[in-house]
Design brief:
This protein has about 450 residues and is α+β, with helices and mostly antiparallel strands. Helix content is about 50%, strand content about 10%. It contains 17 helices and 12 strands. A 5-stranded mixed β-sheet has the order 1-2-8-5-3, sandwiched between helices. Strands 4-12-9 form a 3-stranded antiparallel β-sheet. Strands 6-7 form a two-stranded antiparallel sheet. The longest helix is centred in the middle third of the chain and has 32 residues. The protein is globular, with a radius of gyration of 22 Å.
Length: about 450
Amino acid sequence: MKQLSGPHTLPLLSMIRWLVSPFAFMDACAQKYGDIFSTPLGPNFRSIVFVSNPQALQEIFTADQKQIDAPGELNAIFQPMMGKHGLFTLSGGRHRQRRKLLLPPFHGERMRFYDQAIRECTEQITSQWEIGKSFSVRAFMQPLSVQVISRTVFGIVEGPRYHQLQQLVSSMLDAMSSPLGVSFLYFPILQQDIGSLSPWTRFLRCQKQFDQLVYAEIQERREQPDPSRTDILTLLMSARDEAGEPMTDFELRDELLTLLFAGHEASTTALIWGLYWIHKLPSVREKLLQELDDFGNKLEKSAISHLPYLNAVCRETLRIYPPSMLTLPRVVVSPLSVMGYLLEPGVILLGCIYLTHQREDLYPEPKLFKPERFLKRQFSPYEYLPFGGGSRSCIGMAYAQFEMKVVLANILSRFELALADNDPVRAVRRGLNSGPSDVKLVAIARRP
């Protein structure tokens, strides 16, 4: 049996490297130790194994639960943000049952109900762009994602509650977006109310107001049900488990928080990276505009999901710097061998999405943005996994990809844009996920 290797630094130092510079940390470990390596990440995560080999990921995702499990308790780090009654923190049968309840609103024909809302939000946000003036892409894509979530997930369209929800969501996300903010999750001892200057204190106060708003909305929906509504909150409130029981207010609140934190930053990040790469590479932009122009004349709006080059651009965007760097954790239950390595009970396994997407054997010249690679080959779910894998993959995968395509198509069809400068754009930590450093565009003209 082969022995696992990895950096032998102090757990606290490894955690600091992981928090401050995750991509450099992963690249250095992979270069020195290969596609399976162990590293301690702080006092609470001493037996961590990063895995980026597709064969090993397949063995892990398809293993019997008696050998490798994915208990919700491993995701306790998310509880301060997402609660303890949501999908991330459930285990076993309860997790399977809840996942079954949550899947329908995010798949199939449901997408067409969200199309118009996404388009209208995009047009409203981009109407603020001034021709000839540069702007920060994040300053517009973040509120766009919040608006889309407000309308499609919460079903709140206009009025004081709509604006309050957007302000609260933005404040909560900003408080937890920096390495300092996310360190409060990795070090629970820091979760103390120490004054308004603390990101944690600001987060808690916004979360309290968020709870009041959400519970008031749920109460109104229960008192005045409207079966014609198509937002995700309404669908979740009408869902029933195998015993015919609805979700409680606490469960609904936690699922909304889960959708918010798991989906918002990923959507914002994907859109920023997409706009960056499209305008960084003129050939990509030209091919995409040609496809969109043909699409506008010939196809139904519902066919936007099937445009091959737009799909390839979106997939490559999610490959090169995936918003989620890691899969949700699994734990070894009984001794087993994976790729010749003996894994002992208690070892926590993390699929390393980023390193898998950087493999030369799968993606030649992985640092280059090449959408064509997705036109030439189909990748397995163990080779391409921007939304995780197995039973813990993201339930909003289809929704997120649909939103990305609709927004990018709408923007590119209506504006001629260019990068405002040639400053380097780096992948940096954004809370629990990753994202680009500041990207600036300039609106050159409106397209006819």
